[in-house]
Amino acid sequence: MNDEPSGLEPLEEDARIDALDKRLKALREREEERNLPKAGAETDANYRMGSRVLADLIGGLAGGAFIGWVIDQFAGTAPWGLLVMLFMGVIVAFRNIIRNSSRRPE
After folding, report:
1. pTM of the full predicted structure?
2. CA nearest neighbour of 101 among 62, 64, 50, 65
3. Could you give the angle at the alpha carbon of 54 between the alpha carbons of 49 and 56, nearest 5°?
4. Radius of gyration of the chain (CA)
5. Distance between CA atoms of 62 and 74, rounded to whole angstroms?
6. What was the pLDDT predicted at 39?
7. Do the Cβ atoms of 85 and 65 come closer than 8 Å?
8. E-assigned strands of the chain?
């Protein structure tokens, strides 16, 4: 066949190429480390979400109970105002929890 070089043979190794490969590898590793998600950020977001749910529940119950108690004191309808408003507070709390849970994370 032909004894001429076809140009597809591997090139000889060059020290500059090796040094460049090492630098590129080190930069890629640093970039991967920099782009890793922080473990604490997700935990903090979950903790904030749990605190928000607890605050909605306590706020709904306490707010409904207080408004119902005030209605009972002025209207003299004890214990019906308290019970109705407590039930309404639970409904509002669960509505807020569902609405906040369906939002996209920030």
Report:
1. 0.55
2. 50
3. 95
4. 33
5. 19
6. 63
7. yes
8. none
C-alpha distance from residue 35 to each of 25, 44, 45, 89, 104 (Å): 15, 18, 18, 44, 22
Q: How many Å apart are CA 52 and CA 59, to the nearest integer? A: 10
At residue 106, the pLDDT reads 61
E-strand spans in 10-106?
Answer: none
Q: How far is CA 38 from CA 21, 30, 34, 45, in A?
A: 28, 15, 9, 12
Q: Sketch the domain layout of the chain as residue ranges.
A: 39-101
Walking along the chain (106 residues) 10 residues at a time, the average pLDDT comes out as 58 78 91 76 79 93 94 90 94 92 75
Residue 37: CA count within 13 A, CB half-sphere: 7
